[in-house]
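pinging the channel bc i need a second pair of eyes. not urgent but kinda urgent?? the chain im working w is below, pasted from the shared doc
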Amino acid sequence: MSSVDALIAILLFLAVFAFMRGIWANNLSAANDKITAIEQQFVAEQTMMVLTQTPGNPIDWTLSSVFIPGLAINPFVLEQSKVSEFCSITHSNAAEYLGLGKFDFNFKLSYGNGTVFPCTNHSITATNGSVVRISKRVLYNGGDANVEIFVFK
């Protein structure tokens, strides 16, 4: 075998190796994107459950004592004082208490007539990427209301 044949064989091997590595990296990236989407959906559902179905931890939490900011007196029945307190928590602290990790969120509470409850600390808008939206009907202030959670990266 001549040195030219050996050189061609080595170049062919390297080209095949580079092609296979590219395919592997592309598949790995797609798998990571799918894992992130599943994790994002899970975080959104968990956040909605904590806020609308639990009283939080401790049960009678305040701004100075909150570990987990649940808003419910009973499942899907929100307590006015806890909603107000939640809206007073800084956005970064609320995200930490809710265990959002690498994700961010937007919280929106609207009355049955469509009027939005002012909760500006948690009215962050996603700038890019995928957004998971979950909506639940709740009772708030004696009437029908809707809670929406948006989770994004």
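so The chain has one domain: 39-152. and Residues 39-152 form one domain. — does that match what u expected or am i reading it wrong
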